[in-house]
């Protein structure tokens, strides 16, 4: 329903009480609530504000020489990087001990080099891109989760809370609403700092709203106030009903937020998506301490992330919710390959993204980024996976919405990734097969290094495929092929013309699998 | 499913419904305003340029007789007469090594243990200036603070924060180019955006990027500066250094990149010639000139002004008919802000009825406006500088819970209300903040701002006494609502308000009698209490009306 219609409805003099749900419903046993759900699945988004340094989070152990050389002021010593039980090529920052533990248990997935073509280095623009799910050059006024929730509940907020959906569609722990949950006609989230300290506001008499900016603003205040009252009560009750079953670390604001989320889920809210925030990832300086790179701001942040998530997972297990909840980190960009003179790193491009939960298919998707032999200060990591592929895959295999509808929500078709364990996935085709394909080399380059022309030999699965060239800044500079590509091998070449010598990347994607390789132009 | 709402330009109007048709409805141009000049127009002007309105101010503006004279008065800036004080010591662990209580701390050396209290003293001093101002000045200081922000507690240096604020104040109604130049080498800014670490061996582009993206060129559809421009600007700015403990900006030629810096076609392929030695400092002037004089800068600053003072959404019509002519005025006047402001605030467009009451109050408009309008009595300083500080600290903490921590915006973009498409000013209101505002107004009505040294409180009887016939409940309700809201209020609401004053009785004389009895015996505690209890419930409801959030 469009806002205009909603305003007319709101102004029609219907007494608020006629559509207030019976709050006693909340007293029904929890299993009853769950039984009625289409899906009882929950996604928790952990927003890492500022741009997390991917190279110091997930460390390319197979390229430690180049890593140390380009990151002199922040590099971690190889022998301190935490190893993983599935690979010797990749390790984790020493502060991520708990995440390592969960990874080794198969409950954490790392997706390498997540980003988008033509990266934007502005915090605000890039945050908007991640939250809206837009292209770099496109402005979307809605958020990706807002569009998904609008797909599920197209009439919201008219008639909500309702008997079937008495709870907020999404909850942001904190103080303000974000673009992520902006729907086509209204924001789909409720923000709350602490559900236990809720007091009811006076609800005035609803007078008609004029079709002017004044009416628009007044209607907005009225709506938010009403939601605050109705949803505030629900959340307070839910939060009171449940007790946390794990000890959360002290002085950890992420843990504090996740603690509330765990209680709200356990208390019976049907809310689908929660969002929490951690600030401070914009580590231009003092990312590490000069005398000990294992310490410093970034280590503190990652420790907070790791111990906070672990406590949350333990809590979920104690509450019997371990199979219903997954989590995802999101950050507007990664950081530069080379470090700066202030013991920090500047705004960059792609970076790893972490998914966690019992239902998450563990392991690493993608390869370590390929570091250049001699990095320039503006070199960046190109994307291997589009962040919207991650959103789409979660919508499809966790929230069970059809591929066509995923495409509508995301406005385009993106590659599906195997993110959910087969046992939990809604997909009829097991992701196992996709996984097996990950090991095949589907992209060969020759000659490499090259002077002007370079050939590519690709193996298509007969699905939608694309072949792109990225510059060292991580931007797509050439699209060689895009669309359905016949099954089997195909040859392409690229004429680099008058582009300067240096490092470039070529990426080939076919269906759910992809490969990125470093190519070097000489002379 | 509903098609995705897609927009191609950042200044399109929002989705269908609401003000989507506003672009067609707006017709008023920038010519001098020629309509009615009555109380409603005065209140609109004051709501947007001060923090809230006071009845006596509206009356005094009314007596001036014309918009021209009102504007002259609005721009009649008074000099600063006081400094932030030592008002936070507790005789125990919070103490100043040498500055005396009641004196100022600004000449004292940085001291970790006391710095946070100095910052609070600075912020409450700033709040006090806003509470007292009857001109546009403090609102412009806040405009610039939002436009070129720092994070004061983040950097944790009270004297630097004071100096930054004084720089904003120096140029608040002055020259934009000079403001940008001064802030570029401001010590606090050099720390905030890493200019201090911007070195020829490892350029740090943080400031160079924000200088273009957030402070000058902006992100309009034609703001096409490149990544290389960011890098070139960073190299120009190498060498400007300061010291945390002795903040004074110096130019260090040894850290300055002496190569030529070449900019993109967006800047007409301008080359800033590399200079060595002390001459390297001249490159700064050339850079600021190049950026500020680019046509996008004037457009961007005028859009920000418009969003702050008039309405957050800028349609194509507004861009062409309002923003572009304003930008021309800005450019023709060599980036002096005053002519732009006076043109905008004195225009037909500014007084377009559609654009009045079209914004949600910022936390400052809300809380300072509330204190000012109802004449909240803060303890006066001197002599009671501690009590005043405490009351204003309570106010400050409420502002942070409403998501407007003055001196420490969320980040270098300022507050989302002034840039975040499509929510803009709606982003001030969330289920959390609307709730906080409700708790705040309830607390003010019933208890005031309480602290150890006394209380800052509103005298509700005195306020009610400023109306023409407070003893007549029907007239009183009409007048209170008219003074506050400028829009008709539903008869049902009035009926409900009357039932509060009459404690559910029908006969109006119950209220009239209570009022007249108090007039006869103003010092009788019980008589006073009878009135006050009803008035508090009455104003509690009024301050929680949705209309109260609109300006």
Rg value of chain A: 24 Å
Stretches of chain A where pLDDT falls below 50 for ≥5 residues? 1-38, 428-439
Oligomeric state of shown chains = heterodimer
The mean pLDDT of chain B is 91
Number of DSSP strands of chain B? 7
What does this structure look like?
The complex is a heterodimer of chains A (523) and B (551). With 523 residues, chain A is of the alpha/beta class. Helix content of chain A is 27%, strand content 21%. Chain A has helices at residues 3-10, 30-36, 64-70, 97-104, 123-132, 144-152, 213-241, 253-266, 297-318, 387-397, 403-410, 431-437, and strands at 42-48, 58-60, 82-83, 90-92, 108-115, 139-140, 170-173, 189-192, 273-278, 325-330, 351-356, 363-365, 385-386, 443-446, 453-460, 464-470, 476-484, 488-495, 502-510, 513-521. In chain A, the strands form 4 sheets. In chain A, strands 1, 5, 7, 8, 9, 10, 11, 12 and 13 form a 9-stranded mixed sheet that branches. In chain A, strands 17-16-19-20 form a 4-stranded antiparallel sheet. In chain A, α4 (97-104) crosses α9 and α10 (387-397) packs antiparallel against α11 (403-410). The longest helix of chain A is centred in the middle third of the chain and has 29 residues, at 213-241. Chain A starts with a helix and ends with a strand. The model of chain A is unreliable at 1-38 and 428-439 (pLDDT under 50). With 551 residues, chain B is mainly alpha-helical. In chain B, α19 runs antiparallel to α24. Chain B is globular. Chain B starts with 5 loop residues before the first strand and ends in an 8-residue tail after the last helix. At the A-B interface, α1, α5, β6, α6 and β8 of A face β1, α11, α12, α19 and α22 of B.
Features of this protein?
heterodimer; A: 523 residues; alpha/beta; nine-stranded mixed sheet; four-stranded antiparallel sheet; 12 helices; 20 strands; 27% helix; disordered N terminus; B: 551 residues; mainly alpha; two-stranded antiparallel ribbon; 24 helices; 50% helix; globular
